[in-house]
Design brief:
By secondary structure, the protein is an alpha/beta fold. It has a domain at about 10-60 and about 230-295 and about 430-485: 3-Layer(bba) Sandwich (FAD/NAD(P)-binding domain). The chain is about 35% helix and about 15% strand. The strands form 4 sheets. Strands 7-6-12-13-14-11-15 form a 7-stranded mixed sheet. Strands 9-2-1-10-16 form a 5-stranded parallel sheet, covered by helices on one side. Strands 3-4 form a two-stranded antiparallel sheet. The longest helix has 17 residues, at about 155-175. The mean pLDDT is about 95. Bound molecules: flavin-adenine dinucleotide. Flavin-adenine dinucleotide binds near residues 20, 69, 459 and 472. InterPro entries: FAD/NAD-bd_sf. Pfam families: NAD_binding_8. This is Phytoene dehydrogenase. It comes from Brachybacterium alimentarium.
Length: about 500
Amino acid sequence: MSVPPAHEFDAVVVGSGPNGLAAAVTLARAGLSVQVLESEETLGGGARTLDLGLAPGILHDICSAGHPLALASPFFTKFDVRARGVELVAPEASYAQPLDAEPAAIAWRDAERTADGLGADAAAWRATLGALSRDQDLVVELSLGDKRSIPQALVTPRTLAAAPLFGALLGLQGTPAWSLPFRTERARALLTGVGAHAIGRLPSLALSATSALLGTIAHGVGWPIPVGGSQSIMDALVSDLRAHGGQLTTGHRVRTWRDVPPARAVLLDTTAGAAADILANRLPRPLEAALRRFRHGDAAAKVDFVLSGPVPWRDPDVALAGTQHLGGTRHQMAAAEAEVAAGRVPEHPVTLVSDPSLVDPSRIHGGLRPLWTYAHVPAGSTIDPTELVTRQIERFAPGFRDVIVTSRGIPASEMAHHNPSLVGGDISMGRVTMWDMIARPTARWDPYRLADTGWYLCSAATPPGPGVHGMNGWHAARRVLRQEFGIREMPDLSPDPRD
Ligand SMILES: Cc1cc2nc3c(=O)[nH]c(=O)nc-3n(C[C@H](O)[C@H](O)[C@H](O)COP(=O)(O)OP(=O)(O)OC[C@H]3O[C@@H](n4cnc5c(N)ncnc54)[C@H](O)[C@@H]3O)c2cc1C
């Protein structure tokens, strides 16, 4: 596709990831003319589903696969993907933690059932994740806010009671006292596995915040998998944007501000470093320097498999979960993450696995199915992860090799080939520490506005950080509307007859 003739848009969004599209939809819904420019040939950034040519009819989620945040986030709740025909199916078990020497620990959707399976830790699980899941909205608001305003959910007495529980769980799990309040290896490993969605040394406050958020949603709306793949969520955003006059151009990499048509506001769904490059010498010097200093985190290396049948998990309950966290015990996972942080590829890396056909049989073609996996490795690692991931799955599913038909492994160093924002394989657009979650891309009261230029950052490199929740785009769009267009009321996002 070619770029439309240069003319004035109200707003241009660079990048069509979940945050770029969330921002674009919000601005278009407010009545602005919006142009999206995307460097790749396909739209959707970290939520694309593609035919990789591995087997006829088999589609792969090349980045995100599980979508607890797309159901729970305030942006997507307002946008209401389900009402637009996107089927999000939550499996009966949200996530599973297979172990070598004992039965797997399973986080069922039902918190009670989960607690019942955790023996001596039943009461502790009920009192923490069980209780928090009844206040999912508070946990989500605390986690996905812009970290600059007081969450509205905090002002009710019921949620005021839950906030200290959230803080206590976060404080305990994020510090050397992380053995409390759980006594069994199974409960500890289960909670650590979910925290390890954020890549980094354990224990840490940021990883425990991830456990608290994703662990709470697991017993709330669950961890749904979209029928047809993640792309269906992005397609719903694109269709709403088009219905409200938005234009999208693919194959257009923005390298400098000159590559962007004149507009009153420009929102960058890019890394902090890319923003500095695009606006070189046009930002106040300290801000440009801070963006260039922005630190990326360690990496994921992806392997997409095509299988002739389901993964033969040793413990059959593991197969009922939408996502498997492979890493063994809490201490084994901590050791593997420490290796990654030290720049070494672990022998048994923390590995995430998901078989979408568990809830979506339409993903199976000719008896073949896709399997989504990735392993944590050091930033920029050049190692092909296929054998590492295969071994890690075999450890908990003997016979896995026999169902592999074909696969494609991508080293961390090559992850950016299909999305320039995955620098060195960093899937979180920056280091995941508590400070980095609050102060990304740099410590400023307004982390989205790039000084007084009319340019904004709206990607996961801003609060609240990574995930397919659209909240970075929504927070940035709110500021653009207010600061550039004097619009104080946020637009209605619910489906309308044009969609
Ligand atoms: C392997 C992997 C697995 C993941 N799994 C999950 C998961 O299961 N669940 C979940 O919630 N999250 C998951 N994530 C994280 C999630 O995908 C990201 O946090 C999310 O996509 C960030 O959205 P974004 O819009 O900020 O950026 P992105 O999704 O990265 O989108 C940025 C877009 O901007 C484009 N772009 C960048 N620079 C330019 C430029 N200069 N010019 C033009 N276009 C540009 C890119 O091509 C891309 O399309 C995963 C990520 C990866 C990589």
